[in-house]
Amino acid sequence: MQPLDQTVLATAPPVPRRSPLAGGALSRWRAPLSILALLALPFLLPSQALAVNVLIYGLYAVGYNLLYGYTGLLSFGHAAFFGTGAYVTGIAIGAYGLHPLAAMGLAVAAAGALALALGAVSIRSRGIYFAMVTLALAQLVYYAALQASAWTGGENGLRGFTVARIGLGRLAVDILNPLTKYFVVLAFVGAALAMISRILASPFGAVIEAIRESETRARACGFDVERTKLLAFVLSGLFCGLAGALFAIHLSIVPLDSLAYHTSGMAVVMTLVGGAGTFFGPFVGALAVLVLEDALSLWTPHWQLALGTVFILFVLFLPRGLWGTALARIGAMRGRP
Amino acid sequence: MTGPVLQVENLGRRFGAFSALEGISATLGRQRITAVIGPNGAGKSTFFNLLSGALKPTSGSLRFGGRDLARVPQARFAHLGIARSYQITTVFPRLTAHENVRTALQARASRYDFWSRRDRLAGLEDRADALLDSVGLAGRRGRPAAALAHGEQRALEIAIALAADPKLLLLDEPTAGMGPEETKDMVALLHRLAEARAILLVEHKMKMILGLSERILVLHHGRLIADGSPAEIQADREVRRVYLGQSGGYGHA
Ligand SMILES: Nc1ncnc2c1ncn2[C@@H]1O[C@H](COP(=O)(O)OP(=O)(O)OP(=O)(O)O)[C@@H](O)[C@H]1O
Ligand SMILES: [Mg+2]
Q: Do A18 and B94 lie within an 8 Å CB cutoff?
């Protein structure tokens, strides 16, 4: 039985030895503290556009982290859920005139349904095979969107929907103002973070961590590993779908790129750079990667190569990522054994 | 526990053309500790994998408490009352000792609850502490499993198995790699555990087995070549031949 676990370990996330602050204030208040930090973000960053992107990609990476950092499954296909969330939002508003909130709800449900389908196909393969199957399935979704250009706009992306106000009745707010838009997006992201924090602290959260640590032992304990993984996959897809929906609302267009494999790669890179298996790490990773992307693309046309190099350096020399390493430092300063 | 706990009938397992286990029949009842011995590659771990559902037999049948296990998925075995340890320690390395046992306990209490607090499940925290205490790890509750000493990890794995409250406990070389002190502790632990459940034990340490078990099954090349009390096994000519021929005595490990 050992060889199976070894293939899994080859792709297992380099999470902290244990949550270094488990039981500490930083851990207990992780959701409110994260939201607080994100409230301050637009005032700390040079542009509001960057801040909104950190929120959206951060949520995308957080959703991904649920699967990779906490359940231990390395997926290369999460753009499928991000892109589906974005396209369904855009189509529901543009072609069917749905209320933006209803469109977003539909988008999240669609991403979840897609995750259920793709998960059912992929969840039985392990390690790098799982990564390859998810990549292949996401490519199918990409080509389907490319072909269905009557719906999706094909290569040009989806246009023709603009959301100027969001909310219900008198509570609707104008999101043409960038700062207002930021806080509207943050309302969704904050709610998602509160839910994810709750899920991680739940009995189910303990089961996915157990599966990450040892599938063999989890199964021997009496957990239905396949079913639990599938549920984690669907949850992850739901949150990535929400990130995609917010992305569509934010941009008022949906580029075909949102379904492409490098968008899948973004989730992996941001999660690892920030810190897999940490609550706030994906936001740190999103910020670092977006800033780096901006800076590098000014410097050199080969910025993707440079970004890839930075990523490899991270994997080699800072495997716990920026936030994961910071947490470990704080944990050590507190004099844990 | 009245009647047989486990009935094994003509059990076999092939890997392709290779037959790792063949024609094993045995009934396990009230005996407290039954040892399974045999040279390396005899099929002991394969036998355990079949009994714990990790592998499905390719022939024969298994019944546990009268229930046929043929179609039972592995995850159900713990719920039915069969729990195990592995030859290579299999715990949750980056979780603390307490989290290891608490999570194992959760398998019976709560598996798909997304919303309550895991640390507030009624009684689980205390039961995890009691189980850690019962294997002598009370002082290690906050340590990550990976940071425990080898012997402590073996004990932790047993505490995890005990969380299922098993009627049958399968232990694959629980003292493997242990020094004399740690082995002594483990033997004492096994004596205590055997008071409340049947234990099936793979071991290479002959002296220990002879002192510990009421019954011994001897596997050789995938076949059951002897089944009896320690005295009977010691006197068995076939067993002596297998062991003497191999290494000049009962001397593995
Ligand atoms: N999954 C598998 N696939 C192929 N062959 C296997 C598999 N598992 C075990 N075997 C083979 O079956 C035989 C019995 O192996 P098993 O692990 O049961 O022996 P064992 O008695 O536990 O030995 P040891 O004392 O070394 O632990 C060996 O020849 C082994 O190579
Ligand atoms: Mg073995």
A: yes
Decide if B216 is inside a domain: yes
Residue B137 covered by a domain: no
Pocket perturbation via mutation, ligand 1, pick of B14, B36, B44 by most ligand atoms within 8 A of CB:
B44
Report if residue B165 sits inside a domain.
no
* CA–CA distance, A323 with A329 (Å, rounded to integer): 10
Which CATH number covers residue B52? Answer: 3.40.50.300
Q: Is B120 on the interface with A (CB under 8 A)?
A: no
pTM assigned to the model: 0.92
Instruction: Classify burial at A218, counting beta carbons within 10 Å of its beta carbon; exposed 0-12, middle 13-18, buried 19 or more.
Output: buried
Q: How do the pLDDT tens digits run along chain A, 337 residues long? A: 444 444 444 577 776 655 444 446 778 899 999 999 999 999 999 888 999 999 999 999 999 999 999 999 999 999 999 999 999 999 999 999 999 999 999 999 999 999 999 999 999 999 999 999 999 999 999 999 999 999 999 999 999 898 888 888 888 888 889 999 999 999 999 999 999 999 999 999 999 999 999 999 999 999 999 999 999 999 999 999 999 999 999 999 999 999 999 999 999 999 999 999 999 999 999 999 999 998 888 888 888 888 888 889 988 999 999 999 998 888 777 754 4
Domain assignment present for residue A52? The answer is: yes
**B144 within some domain:** no
| C-alpha to C-alpha distance for B145 and B163, rounded to whole angstroms | 16
The verdict on a CB contact (< 8 Å) between A222 and B164 is yes
Residues B33 and B194: beta-carbon distance below 8 Å:
yes
Q: Domain total for chain B?
A: 1
Find tokens 């205390």 and name the residue: B126
Distance B40 CA to ligand 1 centre (A): 8
Region of A222 (left: φ > 0; alpha: ψ -120 to 50; beta: rest) is left
Question: Which string of DSSP letters, residue by residue, matches A63-122?
Answer: HHHIIIIIT----S-THHHHHHHHHHHHHHHHTT---HHHHHHHHHHHHHHHHHHHHHHH
How far off is chain B from A219, nearest CA to CA, in Å?
5
- A296 lies in a domain? no
Nearest-neighbour CA in chain B from A198: distance (Å): 6
Q: Whose CA is nearest to atom 5 of ligand 1?
A: B15
